[in-house]
Amino acid sequence: MKKWILSLLAIGLLVGITVGVYMYNKPLESMDSQEAEITLSAVDLYTAFDSDEASANAQYLGKVIEVSGVIQTISDAEEGQPSILLDAGGLMGGVICRLDPTASSTFNVGQSVTFRGECTGKLMDVELARCVPVE
User: Fold this and answer.
1) What are phi and psi of 131, to 5 degrees?
2) How many Cβ atoms sit within 10 Å of the Cβ of residue 116?
């Protein structure tokens, strides 16, 4: 009887570890195939976070957002993917769009663009992760 219980526990543990490893390594769904829940300008998004961060977190955090604006700066970031800062009219910040590895990176400063990404909140700037350009 003890052998059966130990065998079942070992099989359960092995299945649990296998599922855990699979879920940890599962790739994220591309933003290309996701619909935006909210569409707004970089100025409106930054203003919402700048005026009431708690309310903006409740409204935007973790949601897929399409944001439009003018590129202020382009910088190389982690993993070789550029981050694009959209001008939000603020002296102290803007909206940072961290590009998805699958996104094209042919952008120029001063260009008007629209990106779709997941809002991750505000540090100095409002940040969107896994951004892809919207045609």
Assistant:
1) -75, 145
2) 23
| C-beta separation of 30 from 102 below 8 A | yes
Q: Which tens digits make up the pLDDT trace of 88-99?
A: 887 778 999 988
Indicate the DSSP class of residue 28: P
pTM assigned to the model: 0.74
Average model confidence (pLDDT) across the chain: 88
Helix axes 42-51, 53-60, angle to 10 degrees: 130
Count CA atoms within 13 Å of residue 86 on its CB side. 28
CA dist 63 and 56 (Å) reads: 11
Sign for the pseudo-dihedral over CA of 86, 88, 94, 100: negative
Q: Which of 39-48, 75-84, 85-94 has the lowest mean pLDDT?
A: 75-84
Q: Which of 62, 40, 59 is nearest to 134 (CA)?
A: 40
Structure tokens, 106: 């042919």
Distance CA 30, CA 46 (A): 24
